[in-house]
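Hi R.,

Here's the chain you asked about this morning:
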Amino acid sequence: MTKQVELGLPQNVLLHDVSTRWGSTQRMIQRFLEQQNAVSSVLLADRKSIHLIPGDADLTTLETVNDVLEHYRRLLML
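And the predicted structure, written out as tokens:
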């Protein structure tokens, strides 16, 4: 949470998806995108973990998947 405070991000924990809860994957991706600067900053501090930092293509893919899942979640809520 220290990095979240330093970066001015909400102090939210990362989520994981639950196979029996529709929409949990979208919320997990959305939370990761919200916190990706803090996650990347923590990974960057450990030389062994640098390879885990998502690249631009990874983030673009996550943003696209998030948008699509968010669209379907809203449709199902109507």
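The chain has one domain: 2-77.

Let me know if you need anything else.
M.
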